[in-house]
Design a protein that fits this description.
The complex is a heterodimer of chains A (about 100) and B (about 375).
Chain A (H helix, E strand, L loop, with lengths): L10 E6 L2 E6 L4 H7 L6 E2 L6 E2 L12 E4 L2 E5 L10 E3 L16
Parallel strand pairs in A: 1-7
Antiparallel strand pairs in A: 1-2, 3-4, 5-6, 5-7
Chain B lengths: L2 E8 L3 H12 L4 E4 L15 E2 L9 H25 L10 E5 L2 H15 L10 E4 H7 L9 E5 L3 E2 L2 H14 L3 E3 L4 E7 L2 E6 L2 E10 L5 H4 L10 E12 L11 E3 L4 E4 L14 H14 L8 E11 L6 E4 L6 E5 L7 H14 L21
Parallel strand pairs in B: 1-2, 1-11, 2-8, 11-17
Antiparallel strand pairs in B: 3-7, 4-6, 5-6, 9-10, 10-11, 12-14, 12-15, 13-14, 16-17
Classes of the chains: A mainly beta (about 100), B alpha+beta (about 375).
Chain lengths: ~100, ~375
């Protein structure tokens, strides 16, 4: 579906779920995921359904990923940087790392 | 020619929705008149607690009425689910009021004790938890938390789903919802009430004012007084996080879907619905002292809404002495009281008399002359 323009920038090494990938400078994290063939980068907190980049302009929040350990980043709004660790997410992020007390 | 109903309920928020549903259940031909989207709509800005703890200091009847409403909440939730398929996400595991200093703790315990010792108050058990005991039930609390009080009757609900479910159930029972029917004037004509709205006249044998802040204007010509004022409340909505809160708290709750809400601000700013960032900052600061783990969780939305507040903070339930068949209902707890409004108050309205036990809620209690 996507074709790279001839004037694409130099490569930038990143990891996607631990796998090495040569991203292109100037690409967003969401574009990098597409370039790496990743269609789904998270599951929703409510239904657990898979989600991937959709609007590519900061509106739909479907492309949330963990970037360098920080969860719920909008991949389409963050440019790739050298050495970036991009990780997919499963369900809701953790805020308070403990099981809820029992009612 | 006015369209005719048995009852016209004026105001389509949680209060009007609950009462109209209750009336429709009893077979009354009921019209629910509402404004458009420019209405103040406290029902779409509230926090969603079904809260008992601490309510009724100064009016024992209100504490008892609130407890009845909390007891009826599961029945209402079940009826709404069966009749509409909407799950209002009611949970009543009990709730915590967290204190951030020993002074707060002492004054909290003192006021709860005074509340429960009032003559005529139906006493409930509450617990006082120190920091260590609280940490076992609320994992993740910060070092600045002194303790909390716990009341087993407290709970929470999804208030938007509750509003939608009440409207859907009302329609399913044959009720007629009339949006863009802002009531301008209500008068008695030929033995019935005629409501003049922006979209024509509605006639009804009974009329129930549930118009929130609008009751102050609509009531007096019918011999009903609602000295209500707007009180601003603000809510902060955080992103969804893995469930860590098994209980609602007075100022923080986590929804069934994981969203964390911070609420319960109160300030007097007239009809100002804009957000005060300094109030948001105070709310956030207190929330972080309670749960430091929320520090890097993002804010998705904030809003302000206007509570409908009476001079003493208690609801007003009133039937007109001069115009029998006209009723007025106002409160700032449309979520908590929904069960009582639908299942206990609506039958009394249908019967034409609120009953002597509702007399303490009449606006007559506010007839205190000012000192010269």
């Amino acid at each position: 579906m996507f074709k790279r323009l001839p004037e694409a920038g130099p490569t930038v090494p990143v990891t996607i779920d631990g796998r090495q990938f040569a991203a292109r400078a100037g690409d967003s994290v969401a574009a990098t995921l597409f370039a790496a063939g990743v269609k789904a980068c998270r599951t929703t907190p409510v239904s657990g359904a898979a989600r991937g980049p959709f609007c590519m302009m900061g509106v739909c929040f479907d492309c949330l990923v963990t970037i360098d350990g920080r969860p719920n980043q909008q991949g389409c709004l963050v440019p790739v940087r050298e050495g970036m660790r991009i990780e997919s997410q499963s369900g809701a992020r953790i805020a308070v790392d403990a099981p809820p007390g029992q009612p | 020619m006015a369209r005719e109903f048995d009852v016209a309920v004026v105001g389509g928020g949680l209060v009007g929705g609950a009462i109209a549903y209750g009336l429709a259940r009893l077979g009354r031909r009921t019209a629910l008149l509402d404004e458009g989207d420019i209405a103040y709509r406290a029902s779409r800005g509230n926090f969603g607690l079904v809260w008992v703890q601490g309510k009724g200091l100064g009016l024992a009847s209100y504490g008892n009425w609130t407890q009845l409403a909390a007891r009826l909440a599961p029945q209402l939730a079940r009826l709404l689910r069966d009749e509409t398929g909407v799950d209002v996400a009611l949970e009543q595991p009990g709730g915590f009021h967290v204190c951030l200093s020993e002074e707060e703790m002492q004054s909290r315990v003192t006021s709860l004790t005074r509340l429960l010792e009032q003559p005529g108050f139906e006493r409930y058990a509450f617990e006082v938890l120190d920091r260590a005991a609280l940490a076992a039930r609320l994992p993740g609390i910060g070092p600045g938390v002194a303790g909390a009080t716990y009341c087993p009757l407290d709970g929470h609900v999804n208030p938007l789903r509750l509003l939608r479910a009440l409207h859907s159930a009302f329609l399913a029972r044959g009720g007629e919802y009339l949006p863009l029917h802002k009531a301008h004037r209500i008068e008695r004509r030929n033995g019935r009430f005629v409501v003049s709205t922006g979209a024509g006249e509605i006639g009804a044998a009974q009329v129930v004012l549930t118009a929130g802040l609008g009751n102050a204007v609509l009531g007096p010509p019918l011999g009903l007084r609602a000295l209500v004022r707007p009180q601003r409340g603000q809510v902060i909505v955080l992103e969804r996080v893995r469930r860590f809160l098994a209980y609602p708290m007075a100022t923080i709750r986590q929804t069934d879907e994981g969203t964390v809400l911070i609420g319960d601000s109160q300030d007097e700013s007239g009809f100002n619905e804009s957000l005060s960032t300094s109030i948001s900052a105070t709310q956030a600061e207190r929330a972080l002292r309670i749960f430091p783990g929320l520090r890097d969780v993002r804010v998705n939305r904030t809003w302000a809404a206007l509570r409908v507040m009476s001079p003493d903070g208690f609801p007003i339930y009133e039937q007109s002495a001069s115009q029998p068949g006209a009723f007025l209902v106002t409160c700032h707890s449309g979520v908590t009281l929904a069960g009582a409004h639908a299942l206990e108050l609506a039958p009394r309205i249908a019967a034409g008399d609120l009953g002597p036990d509702m007399q303490p809620f009449s606006s007559e209690r506010l007839n205190v002359q000012e000192a010269a």
